[in-house]
């Protein structure tokens, strides 16, 4: 049994949102900003939530917010920064663009914890989800090296670690949908309301 106090939630909310054209975390679904859905899924499972973003508007949420240690380096930098700030070995890392995410999916990642795996990521519909994943704190040193070598591909960094995938069945496919474009936003609204 993993206790809440042993787990930190890290939400990546930086980046350019170039495909959407506006910060994805502030998009509204049923009167709630996208980022709040990530917060709500994490809350039952973690002792602290850290938001990684330059946007001070997130401070209204009343959570700890830090900025990226390495600027403009993508999710790998966000994860590294979050792991540096975290006080726990276990860390659930989420993006801010997955408004159908549930605690149940995150619990499955926790249930899959073993001694060997450094990263445990969700896999849905044959797609692995490095931003619906559990990272152990020491991964930060590996990611720091990649950033120093200017390697920004998260999937490359993950492959250098001991990782495993938790394959979710069809019932959870909607829960892992992420939004990058206005068209995908419409699909999420359809999935939410129907
Ligand atoms: N802290 C932090 N988060 C990031 C960074 N880049 C992306 N993210 C977050 O990572 C998640 C996935 O981001 P992407 O959709 O791949 O990238 P994006 O920059 O937001 O959007 P595009 O410009 O359309 O690729 C989102 O939650 C982003 O907020 C970054 O450099 N720092």
UniProtKB/TrEMBL annotation:
Record-listed Mg(2+) binding positions: 97
Domain of life: Bacteria
A Pfam family: NTP_transf_3
Protein's UniProt keywords contain Nucleotidyltransferase: yes
InterPro entries: MobA-like_NTP_Trfase, Molybde_CF_guanTrfase, Nucleotide-diphossugar_trans
Catalysed reaction, written as an equation: Mo-molybdopterin + GTP + H(+) = Mo-molybdopterin guanine dinucleotide + diphosphate
Chief place where the protein resides: cytoplasm
Subcellular location(s) of the protein: Cytoplasm
Chain residues that bind GTP: 12-14, 24, 68, 97
Keyword annotations of the record: Cytoplasm, GTP-binding, Magnesium, Metal-binding, Molybdenum cofactor biosynthesis, Nucleotide-binding, Nucleotidyltransferase, Transferase
GO molecular function: GTP binding; metal ion binding; molybdenum cofactor guanylyltransferase activity
Enzyme class: transferase
Keyword Transferase in annotation: yes
Cellular component GO terms, alphabetical: cytoplasm
EC annotation from Swiss-Prot or TrEMBL: 2.7.7.77
Cofactors (names): Mg(2+)
Domain MobA-like NTP transferase: 9-155
Task performed by this protein: Transfers a GMP moiety from GTP to Mo-molybdopterin (Mo-MPT) cofactor (Moco or molybdenum cofactor) to form Mo-molybdopterin guanine dinucleotide (Mo-MGD) cofactor.
Family from the record: Belongs to the MobA family.
Domain notes: The N-terminal domain determines nucleotide recognition and specific binding, while the C-terminal domain determines the specific binding to the target protein.
Protein name: Probable molybdenum cofactor guanylyltransferase
Species per Swiss-Prot/TrEMBL record: Wocania arenilitoris
Lineage: Bacteria, Pseudomonadati, Bacteroidota, Flavobacteriia, Flavobacteriales
């Amino acid at each position: 049994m993993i206790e809440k106090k042993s787990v930190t939630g890290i939400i990546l909310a930086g980046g350019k949102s170039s495909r959407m054209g506006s910060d994805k975390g502030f998009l509204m679904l049923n009167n709630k900003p996208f980022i709040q859905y990530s917060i709500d899924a994490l809350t039952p499972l973690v002792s602290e939530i850290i938001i990684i973003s330059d946007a001070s508007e997130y401070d209204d949420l009343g959570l700890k917010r830090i900025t990226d240690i390495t600027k403009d380096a993508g999710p790998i930098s966000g994860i590294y920064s979050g792991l540096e700030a975290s006080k726990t070995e276990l860390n659930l890392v989420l993006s801010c663009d997955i408004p159908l995410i549930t605690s149940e999916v995150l619990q499955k990642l926790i249930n899959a914890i073993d001694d060997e795996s450094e990263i445990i990521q969700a896999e849905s519909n044959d797609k692995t989800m490095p931003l619906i994943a559990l990272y152990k704190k020491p991964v930060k040193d590996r990611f720091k090296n990649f950033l120093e070598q200017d390697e920004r591909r998260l999937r490359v960094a993950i492959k250098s670690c001991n990782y495993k995938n938790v394959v979710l069945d069809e019932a959870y496919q909607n829960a892992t949908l992420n939004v990058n474009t206005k068209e995908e936003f419409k699909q999420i609204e359809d999935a939410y309301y129907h």
